[in-house]
Fold each of these.
Amino acid sequence: MLKYPVVRRADSRRFTAWYLLSEAIESIEEPEVTAGRVDLADTLGGNIAPDEDLAWEVPPEKLRRSILGGFRKTRFVAFQKLAVALQQEQQDEALHNAARLLRFLP
């Protein structure tokens, strides 16, 4: 995500990567927040976004600082769970795109 250029389009690679990462983070943190074990403000998802900016529109260095700072601030250690969730999000996205393509084929 950090290597992609800043493009102000909803279909940019940066936006897609940010969306998949956000969804993966939410999928592993939502049960904890729902159960009341973790406050939303203390989650990784709540701490990786750059202040008041859209993540896919900020310069790469600011985004890098924001993301890495979020991991440090929350002391995130569930990297394997995040990797599995991210892979699942990527598979879901690929299946969704394949289904969309099949709908348009005669």
Note: The first helix runs from residue 13 to 34.
Amino acid sequence: MKRALILTLSIPALALAAWGGAGAYLAATQPSVKIERVTPLSVSAEKTLPFYELMSPLPPLESYQLLPKLEYKKGPPTRFIERLSLLVRSGPGGARERVVYYGRRTREDLAGLKLIEGDAPEARYLEAAILSSQGLDTGLPAWKNFLLRPLLLREAGHYLQNVSEVQIMEQAGVPAFLFLGERGAAGDIKSTAIFVRRNSFYRTEYYSTQGYFALTPSEHFRKSFLVDKREGAMDYLAKNLVNVRLEQDKVADVKKIEWPMLLLAAKVSVDPASIETYFHFAGISALLYRSVAMDGADTETLDILRNNVLAAEFYARDIGPEAPKTAEIGRLARALTRNLE
């Protein structure tokens, strides 16, 4: 009986010791990164667009070439498309970088979240994970730190690989995060920004093969913010699109068509169930592909424009397979791929 009682009492102690050991092991395996608190920056003369619900500045259109790329994933995309990317170049054949915007991802897998009190617990959970990974004060009571430590460290481990610095920015009482990547052996760099609203995570990735030149991730991050509501993003785009006329003679000059094309790409991200938007986005991509402006264009540019039309057709068929404009997009797609066949 006495041995049974001792064994019974020792089980919780062993479990606590094992839990503490798991936390110690995970802490020892965390990469060492710099953590910096930063403040938001105001947007001055830059053009801004809401990709999904994240309002972001664009590099100067007069200085750089921007080309949006629509990527297809079988839908129908009633809420959002998975991702949309921007190719940024300093000129034909010049340096290039890429910005990738991801649609809202709902997370319900944050174990122990109920122990985080107050507003924006999901964002505070990630903040505590980052701070805990570097042995910094999370602001949580000691007993919560003990219970959450292995869970927080596991979460931090998903973000900190090949990262040199984490910037944490408070916006309207909610922290956002920028993970600045280390330069790879080939000179490439990837940095990632995370914005959080309740259990919705918005991710932006910055890629460069020769160092950032157009969009400094930290500055772009600090000038970005989530709009209050999706309707606000749609209203903003509608006010800008009302002045756009997709005239064929404008396509001879790529600079004149960049802004309308970017507006339509942003519209696709916030209103992915609109065949009308896919129709115009496919149309402008096809016009640019066939224009004299593309004489001598590189293969990557032509591939992006052609794939924009194909992706728009796939999405339109998912949403409204019998719609007349879906058939129109299909005809554009067949015309652009006829030579390939």
Note: The chain has a mean pLDDT of 87.
